[in-house]
Amino acid sequence: MAGAAGGRLVKPVPFAYDAPRSLGEALALAAEHGDEAKLLAGGQSLVPLLNFRLLRPARLIDLNGVEALAGIDAGETLRVGAMTRARALERSPEVAARWPLLVQAVRFSGHPQIRNRGTVGGSCAHADPASELPCALLALDARMRLRSERGERTVDARDFFVSTFWTALEPGELLVEIQVPAPSSRTGTAFLEHARVHGDFALAGAAAVVTIGDGGTVERAAVALLALADRPIRVPAAEAALAGRRLDEQAAREAGALAAAAAEPTSGDVDHRRALGAELVRRALLEAVGRAAA
Amino acid sequence: MTWVGRPVRRREDVRFLTGAARYLDDLEPEGALHVAFARSLAAHARIGGLDLGAALAVPGVAAILTGDDLADVGPLPAIGVEGAWLAPAAHPVLARGKVRYAGEAVALVAAESRAAAEDAAELVQVDYDPLEPVVGARTGGGVPVHDDVPDDVLLRWARRAGDPDAAFASAPHVVRRSYRIPRLAAAPMEPRGAIAEYDPTTDLLTVWLSAQDPHRPLAQLAPTLGRPPESIRVVVPDVGGAFGSKGALAPEAAAVAAAAIRLGRPLKWVEDRLENFLASSQGRGLEADVELALDGEGRMLALRARLLADLGAYLLPTTAVSPHTTAMLITGTYAIQDVDVEVVGVATTKVPTGPYRGAGRPEAAYLIERLVDAAARELGLDPLELRRRNFVREFPYRTAMGWTYDSGDYERCLDAAVVLLEPERWRDRPGRGRLGIGYGMYVERSGGLWESAVVRVEPDGQIVVRTGSSPHGQGHETTFAQIVADRLGVEPGEVEIRWGDSRLGPAGVGTFASRSTAMGGSALLAALDALDEERRRVGEELDVREAAARAGGLEASGRFGSELVFSSGAYGAAVELDEATGRLAVLRIAAVDDAGRIVNPLLAEGQVVGATVQGLGEALVEVVAHDETGQQTTASFADYHLLTAVEAPEIEAAFVETPSPLNPLGAKGIGEGGSIATPGAVANAVTDALGGAELDLPFTEEALWRALREGGS
Question: Is the pLDDT of residue B252 over 50?
Answer without folding.
Answer: yes
